[in-house]
Amino acid sequence: MKRIFLILIGVFLILQFFPIARTNPSVTSEIQVSPEIKEVLKRSCYDCHSNETIWPAYSYIFPASLLIAHHVEEGREELNFSEFGLLSERKQNKKIYEVWEQVDEGEMPPKDYLLMHPSSKLSEKDKEILKVWSDQYNKESE
To answer: Where is the Haem-binding domain (predicted)?
Structure first.
């Protein structure tokens, strides 16, 4: 039993030497919004949905590194505020609506993310800011 435990510890330690890519590509066409909206997005969304991810210390420890890198990759694929300006106006409007929809349904920010980042929790005021923004943005496209 002790031998198996030591082998598992050894494997765990060896895996720490195989780093996972934690990149922050250049910001190419950042979303243009008011400072008030930008503050909410930066605090609650940018870690997974931009090229400005702040990689916490635990993102360097296997197996958390795999999980976090995968979440960020998925988040950027779905919506990347650092490349938002590259989207057509129609796609931008759709994404803004989806932001509000996810927030309204309590899906964003994810609860598991909030466990480690409680300051990213959206207040009622934050939600209202995003709701008004989403409504305004979608009305502009009509």
So the answer is: 9-138
- Is pTM beyond 0.85 here? no
For residues 134 and 139, what is the distance between their CA atoms, to the nearest angstrom? 9
What is the C-alpha separation between 50 and 55, in angstroms, rounded?
12
* 99 contact partners, CB below 8 Å, separation of at least 6: 45, 79, 108, 130, 134
Q: Residue 117 belongs to what domain range?
A: 2-140
* 81-92 tens-digit pLDDT: 999 999 999 999
Radius of gyration of the chain (CA): 18
| Helix H or strand E encompassing 100 | helix 89-104
What's 57's DSSP letter? G
